């Protein structure tokens, strides 16, 4: 969520060409496009190190996280992308 991150963080990510999406965009309707762009990104990589920050999940899914997201992204969206 843009309200959970600083403008400087987004500016740096954009300057570095980081692939990112806001939680509002992570929906079932957008899943085919997300999958496609993720596949294109991975196709450019020689190596890929994947981690998942628990902050991405809704507070109800990851209640012990130090910075839980109010909205977050449901596991139903994340799982097919793994």
Automatic annotation (TrEMBL):
InterPro entries: Ureohydrolase, Ureohydrolase_dom_sf, Ureohydrolase_Mn_BS. This is Formimidoylglutamase. Its EC number is 3.5.3.8. It comes from Photobacterium ganghwense. Keywords: Hydrolase, Metal-binding. Belongs to the arginase family. GO terms for molecular function: formimidoylglutamase activity; metal ion binding.
């Amino acid at each position: 969520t843009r309200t959970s991150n600083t403008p400087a963080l987004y500016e740096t990510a954009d300057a570095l060409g980081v692939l990112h999406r806001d939680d509002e965009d992570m929906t079932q309707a957008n899943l085919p496009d997300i999958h496609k762009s993720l596949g294109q990104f991975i196709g450019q990589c020689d190596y890929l190190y994947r981690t998942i920050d628990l902050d991405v999940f809704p507070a109800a899914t990851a209640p012990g996280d130090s910075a839980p997201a109010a909205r977050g992204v449901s596991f139903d969206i994340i799982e097919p992308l793994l």
